[in-house]
Amino acid sequence: MALLRCCLFIILFLLGFAESQPFTHPINHTDLQVAIGDMRAKSYYGFAMLLQMLNGTTAQPIRDFTFLMPDDKQLSSSSIFVDEVGEFLLKHAIPMPLHFNDLSHFPTGTLVPSGNSSRMIRIYNRGKRDFFVNNAKIVSANVCLNSVIKCHGVDAIIDYDN
Ligand SMILES: *[C@@H]1O[C@H](CO)[C@@H](O)[C@H](O)[C@H]1NC(C)=O
Ligand SMILES: *[C@@H]1O[C@H](CO)[C@@H](O)[C@H](O)[C@H]1NC(C)=O
Ligand SMILES: *[C@@H]1O[C@H](CO)[C@@H](O)[C@H](O)[C@H]1NC(C)=O
């Protein structure tokens, strides 16, 4: 039963993903602003700034996503070139808005797409206090509470094997 529920969830998830692919719907700016407000309220200033840098450009990973946010200390110690901001954000996103409660249904080993469909995020789930997305641990769940966009704080820049 648990397995069935999990599979259903993944199917729903992938449907949502397929739907999100054409990048056609424009972002709801109010919603983005609300999400950025929530990020700033929890001191994720760097990540909020990266999102704002892309607002209004055509390279928009800014949709109804789940963002996985390294904190300012991690961001400031990594070199992100201006023309890589979009790619960086896609690597720190899941193309569907997910509350931590939704994420917590994924068993360890589940692969979820990142904002870049050619890169997958591996879930390591041993409960709320021990939940990893690839190498990064979720340390601050549900930071974005007031918008459709969801976001969670992580303790590292997300790495991909390839
Ligand atoms: C945009 O987002 C805001 C805040 O979440 C919401 O109140 C509003 O209804 C949304 N507008 C559209 C057109 O979806
Ligand atoms: C994004 O840009 C739109 C229009 O260009 C603007 O109305 C909105 O306030 C901007 N949002 C943020 C969060 O900067
Ligand atoms: C997606 O990831 C691949 C590498 O796996 C990279 O070459 C490509 O530029 C990325 N695309 C975007 C839009 O970031």
Automatic annotation (TrEMBL):
Entry-linked InterPro entries: FAS1_dom_sf, FAS1_domain, FAS1_domain_protein
Signal peptide bounds: 1-20
Superkingdom of origin: Eukaryota
The FAS1 domain, residue ranges: 66-161
Annotated keywords: Signal
Assigned protein family: Belongs to the fasciclin-like AGP family.
Protein name: FAS1 domain-containing protein
Lineage: Eukaryota, Viridiplantae, Streptophyta, Embryophyta, Tracheophyta
